[in-house]
Design goal:
53% helix; 10% strand; alpha+beta; 3 domains
Length: 295
Amino acid sequence: MMKTRQWAVEIILKEFPWAKHLHPAELACFADEHWMAHSWEKKEIESHWSYIVTARLRDRRDGRNFQLVNLNDGYLQEQRLRRKMKRHYQWDGFPYEQPFITDNDRWREFRSDLEKLAGILYARWRHDRKLLGELEQFHFVAEILNALGWEYAPEPARRHANLLFGDEFRRDWTYEMMALHDESLDLELCPRCYKRRDPDAPHRVYLAHYPSFRVYKIGVTTQSSDRRLQTHRSAGASIVDALPAASFTAALSVEKMILEKMKPWRRSVPYISGGSECWSDSARYVGLRNLAKVD
């Protein structure tokens, strides 16, 4: 998502005073969507965020404080929660069955952790869904509803789903998304359940510079995850360029074309992950976009 302009946030707060109840990351998302929307789309966006605030305030009055998380640290919170649930409840997470817990206090703690996870996953899904492939979107919705207890307590889960999805939430839409996820699970195609790459998701070609080895390293990763880039950064590299691609196949073809062009400077560095896709930094740097141009 583009970087939110501060004046756009100020306009939202002035025009919609109830928006002050949104978290900063949610407010930025609202401002971005409202600023970029066509005039006929703005009413729907306003209704969606108004619904979330209304439901949140109602929950606070009822003694519940079910809030979404800040997007900036949502991924880290998600990983901490997943590790806690694996360690404390011996649960490997969705799509595995939830653990059978007989102690009431322990069960309430588990349910509370699941509700937090649902909020984190929704925040990430709303923020990143344009960067996700179709199969990954099915998984996100199915895991959110599973965390809310959709299978064994549909009515409380429906209330929370309405809070999260607002106008997007419809019974038939939910059933369809969950059925499509079940189908991808049966066919072993779900990229998140089976830890596989979604080939149809938007990807990017990236370029990392390793000053200690004096090489550039080219690679391919999805647009929705920076994990691969972080691996290179932790090994001492800096990410100097990235080029978006529509799919995994498109990204691979660009990578192959660039490697062919840089063949005179190619080097193999066994100490780097993917070290066969490197070339010497003595070659003049011109950027991926220029390298990807067809001669």
